[in-house]
Each structure stands twice: as C-alpha cells, then as structure tokens.
Write a structure and sequence with these properties.
Elements (H helix, E strand, L loop, with lengths): L4 H10 L3 H15 L3 H5 L2 H11 L1 H9 L10 H15 L4 H4 L4 H12 L3
Helix pairs in contact: 5-8
Amino acid sequence: MPGLMPLIIVDLFNHLHEKDREYFRSSRERKLGVSLEQAGAHRLSRVTEFQQSIELLRAALRTQPFLAGDKPDYGDYIAFSVFMWAKCEPVQGFAKRRPSRALAEAYARSLRHRA
C-alpha cells in the first residue's frame, strides 16, 4: 500500500474526536480492506517507499516552480493537499519531515499563490 495514508492513518485516528472515530474507522477499513492497525503496521519501514513514490514530483519541481509549470493548477493543489493534511495533523515526526527542498519550496509557493 503506497502513499502517505499508511504512514499517518493511526495518528489521524488517535487525534479524532471520539464521536468521529467509528465512522472514520469503518469507512477507511472498508476502503483499505484491512484494519487501521494493519494499514499502519510497519510504517517506519514504508517511509523510503513513500519517498521513492514522490520522486517524479521532486524531479518536476527541480526544473519548474509548480507541477503545472509557471503557475499552480488543479494537479498542484491536489498533490500538495496530501502534504497539508499530514502537516496539519499531529502525526509522528517522520511525516512532518520535508520530503525534499524542491517539494517544500513548491508547496510554500502554492500556499502563497493567489489566482
């Protein structure tokens, strides 16, 4: 299971209000096909897999300010929303690390950009 979700799902669940936990658990477990605990198992060993999965983002952002070129578009905001989600939630330290300088800078630019 690639992506950021397995790295942060248990932390997200642990910080939800009690009234939201049942829905969060049932909807995510139905989607993932496993328990939250199984989805989040071995997450430290999955950090490298996640970092490899975003290498194309890093490569694009080394040569241009945004994924879409000179200005952000829908794809930029979708990509960066994943990182914003992780940044806003009180997750373990590895999820708060900057994935790369190019990605962090593009993320910051997208937050500052006004259409």
